[in-house]
Amino acid sequence: MLRLRRTSSLAAVLAADGPAAEQAQKLNLYGQFVGDWEADVFTYPPDGSRHQGQGEIHFDWILEGRAIQDVWMIPRRADRRAEVAVLPVAGNWYGTTIRAYDPTLDAWRIFWIDPATNSYRQQIGHSQGANIVQEGTTDSGGLSRWSFTDITPQSFRWTAEGSMDHGVSWRLFVAVFARRTSP
Length: 183
Description:
Strand 9 (155-163) and strand 10 form a beta hairpin. The protein has a single domain (20-182), classed as Calycin beta-barrel core domain (Lipocalin, Beta Barrel), CATH 2.40.128.20. The protein has helices spanning 10-14, 24-31; strands at residues 35-43, 51-62, 67-73, 94-102, 107-114, 119-128, 131-137, 143-152, 155-163, 171-182. A ten-stranded antiparallel β-barrel has the order 1-2-3-4-5-6-7-8-9-10. By secondary structure, it is mainly beta. The longest helix is centred in the N-terminal third of the chain and has 8 residues, at 24-31. It is globular. The model has no long low-confidence stretch (mean pLDDT 90).
């Protein structure tokens, strides 16, 4: 069945040109990622193997510059077809994150939504030295930690880790190495 795309003003009212002036310094913690990225993705199943795929990531300002929204896709749009293998551990992502700075916490509220993998997470994000760390819990009650490290204007590393022993030990599930393709 052919579906016609309806015209909507959502994109126009959602998108913003930059950070809200009153919080610009704090908002640039994630604002530094605004733009388009290509990514090498590595997953680590419990059996000790490693799997690789490619993805793309897009960040932009939303809600009058008070938040950042991003979309993470594995595989890339150009590679998405029915016969593409599902990446172990991660699955095939097509999800979005809303990141909003909360001045009462002096931290970020993070909401990840991925209907493609039926994954939904809430985390709190903050700077930790030169890195950004997001912490939350998993559906099974474990701890989750997603980190941005090795951040430069042209690249970053993102990792997803989990702990089932209240943070005594952490296991790496996914590592993403992103390279900027446009500002």
